[in-house]
Structures are given as structure tokens and as C-alpha cells.
Amino acid sequence: MMPELGVIEGYFGRAWSWKERRDVIDRLAPAGYAFFHYAPKIDGKLRREWRQLHDDAETQNLQQFARHCAARHMRSGIGLTPYGAHLDFDRSARQELKAKIAHLDTIGIDDLVILFDDMRGDFVDLAERQAEIVDCAIGSSKASRFFMCPSYYSDDPLLDRVFGQRPESYLEKLGKLLDPAISVYWTGEEICSREFSIGHLASVAERLGRKPSLWDNYPVNDGPRMSNHLHLRSFTGRPAAVGPYLAHHAINPASQPILSCIPALTLPSCYAKDDAYSYSSEFLNAATNIGGAEFALMLQRDLHALEDRGRLGIAAEVTGFCRKYAAVDTPAAREIIDWLTGGYAITGEMLRTQ
């Protein structure tokens, strides 16, 4: 059974253009992707400056995005991170949140996503505070479906080292306090999980009181180290057998929108073909779909260099790679050249300020 597939645009760094988002939607909707949640870290009015409303031009872009999703039979959603609201959700903060939700309603989104990632969470009553905020948000929204992302969205101890020790039984409390209809995003045993198992997902479902919605951090490459690597290979470690244990499966794409579509196009086959799935042939099919046969064969030969060795590992060969992909001159090839020349580099400052 294939869960509902989607995209959660939740990366740090350089933003996609609205044309790039439309292009991604146009490529993935026919493959079976059913929703697109807009939540790039660079959009400060959805994060650190969430109390500010998008201006007229920004609002119009968001409205056009929602309409484009609808025209492709995809649900549109927006991810809002109410930074600091969990510290003191007083009357003023409550009114500001309602005003923000009312503005988002004018965009015409189908899904509202409330995010609590990337903030300190070492409060004994964190689950209660966040459940109150979510309850206020969904009670004010005209969206027809709701998601939330916990502060501790994985069992990975790295979250505790960075954001403080998670409260005892945090996930269990959150599951009991949230309306059962609210979907909860989860990244797996690690922040960037290499594989997913029935045992783990069943355990998370028991703790949450609902099937988790997978926030799959592949092919995202938005860290200072990861941004030096292109994530291009087909999906592996996502066996079809996990499908019945998931409410949704959303991928967090790479910084390169068109190249992201190569692995993205292999995920539906991962579920549909089950034991007949061949990740190498699926890669070649997807890369051909995105850039043509010549580009696909070239990329297949260069996978080790671009994905494993990375930009720093092939620094002495960059000029040659740029010349080779310039000769192909497709949108995907141009993204490779842009990446090779540092256009997608992520800094620590971006992680601290976005």
C-alpha cells in the first residue's frame, strides 16, 4: 500500500523561484505526488518574523502557487513556525497567531502545517504548550487538513544536544493532547534516516496514537557539509512494506529543484514495484525523464564524483565538469554547474539566522 506522497519544502539556504516550484509540481504531480507544503527556512515571515504578514506581491505569489497546485490536482499547504510563542502564549500572542492564520486563509491553502522544529524544547510542559498553540491555530483556520512537526521529530540524540534534553514522555503526551485528525511529521530514527523499518514506525505510531507522517530528509542537502554533495541516487531503504504504517510520505527536496526530481521520481516506483524495484534502472529512467538520454548516461557515470566525493573532493576537476555539462545545456545540467561554482553553498550563519 502506497501512502499519500508529497513534498515538504523545508530546507535552509537559497530559495527556489516560483517558476522552479511550478516546474517541480508539473513534474511530480503526474508521478503520483498529492501535496506540496511550502515552508522554506528563508521565508522569515513564516519563521522568526512570523508576526509580520506577507506583502501584496508575496501574497499574490502564494495565491498563484495554491492555484497552480489545484490545477495539477495537488493539495497546497503552508508551514508556519510560531517562533517564541511557546515561551509565553499570552493573549497578545494568541491574537497575533489568529491574525496570521486569517492572512494565510486568504491564500487559499488546503493544508496548514504548524512547525516547532529548530527551537529549544527543554520545558517540562512542552507538549502542553505546543498543543495549546496548535489548537488555537486550527480553530482559527479555514484549511481542511492539519499537520504539525514536534520539536523532537526523531529519536536522534543530536536533537537533545542542540535544542536541550527532550521532556520525558514528550511524544506520548503530545499524541494524547492533539486532535486525532492532526497529522504529525516524523523523520525516523535519525534526522536524516538512511532507512525505515516497520518496527520503528509501529513504535512511533503507538507513542503518538496515530500513524506518523514521514518527513523524509532525502534528497535534502542543506547543511554546510551536505551542500557540497548532490543527492541524486534513487530512493533505497524505503521498502513498500512500510507503506501501511505511514499516514503520508513527504520528501524534503534538495536545494536544486530540478535535480531533486530525479530521486523524487523513483519513490513512487519504490512502493509500486516492491520486490521488483531496481534502484539503478529507476535512476536512469528518472534522469532520462528530467534531462534526456545523453544527460542521464553522463550523470550515471559521474554519480560517485558528484554525490560521494562532492564539490570539494573534485575541486581540481571543476572546470572540466563545468565544460562537460555546459555542452548538454539542460535546466538540470545548469543546476550542476551552479552547484559546482558555489551557488548553492550553505553556511553556518544561514542555519543560525533563517
Overall body shape:
globular
Fold-level CATH name of the largest domain = TIM Barrel
Strand count: 8
The figure for the number of domains is: 2
Q: How are strands sequenced across the largest beta sheet?
A: 1-2-3-4-5-6-7-8
Let me know the CATH homologous superfamily of the largest domain: Glycosidases
Low-confidence stretches: none
Beta-strand residue fraction: 5-15%
In brief:
This protein has 354 residues and is α/β, with parallel strands linked by helices. It has helices at residues 18-28, 56-71, 91-105, 126-140, 158-163, 170-177, 198-208, 257-273, 279-291, 293-313, 318-328, 331-340, 348-353, and strands spanning 4-9, 33-38, 75-80, 111-115, 145-149, 183-186, 213-216, 248-251.
Structure, described:
The protein has 354 residues and is α/β, with parallel strands linked by helices. The protein has two domains: 4-277, Glycosidases (TIM Barrel, Alpha-Beta Barrel), CATH 3.20.20.80; 283-353. 45% of the residues lie in helices and 11% in strands. It contains 13 helices and eight strands. An eight-stranded parallel barrel has the order 1-2-3-4-5-6-7-8. Helix 3 (91-105) links the parallel strand 3 (75-80) and strand 4. Helix 3 packs across helix 4 (126-140) and helix 4 runs parallel beside helix 6. The longest helix has 21 residues, at 293-313. The protein is globular and about 60 Å long. The two termini are 37 Å apart. The model has no long low-confidence stretch (mean pLDDT 96).
